[in-house]
Amino acid sequence: MGKKWITKNGYIIQQVLDSNNPLLVSNKTTSILIDTGSRKKWMKLSDKINCILSNKLKLSAVILTHTHHDHVQNARSFKDTFKLDIIVHKSEAEYLKDGGSIYITSNNEKYIKNYEPVMWDIQTDDKYDLCNYDLDAYILHTPGHSTGSVSIIIDNEIAIVGDALSGLDNKPFKRTLKKVSEDIKSSWDKLLNLKCLLYLPAHRSHRYQALEYKDFNELYRSYLTSIKS
Which option is the CATH number for 4-228: 3.40.50.720, 3.60.15.10, 3.40.190.10, 3.20.20.140? Predict the structure, then answer.
């Protein structure tokens, strides 16, 4: 079993395998999954989730932080198997239905179809409250890595940020797409202003599996200093 974090009010956020993609969020009554991992992980993921839930909790929804293939390739399988809701930001809902994604490179955008299409159940906008799932949590639009990237704020304590922190320590603003850079900076400001105890990025390659607020703030301020010099 992977790592586990528990909030002050008893919300459990845990790795299903050995990374933060996906993450399972549970309380005493329900569970939701954040992202779905790559297709090759499906059997391990489904077996592990069934083991974790043990018929005590219902898996109610999958929230997609964005529609890149490594986050959504099992979305269709989860929907068919667990009969749950698929939640995605409105700007990427049509990509999901088509099985594709927009990938942003240094100077252009490319649309690639690389996963099984799946129909969304709920589209989010700037903010979406998860109270209907009996969770003290909400979805926050944090664009930059993609137009529809979102973060999930659990118990006002832990932020699950998908790929929103990509480039935090390798200067993403060097990208020539100015709007992307502006969106990234705006999203980082938004996340920092929440002052969560922990920020959980999707990929270990981002150097931090769990980033404390003080470290996030220090890295960001260091970057702002570097671009002024």
Answer: 3.60.15.10
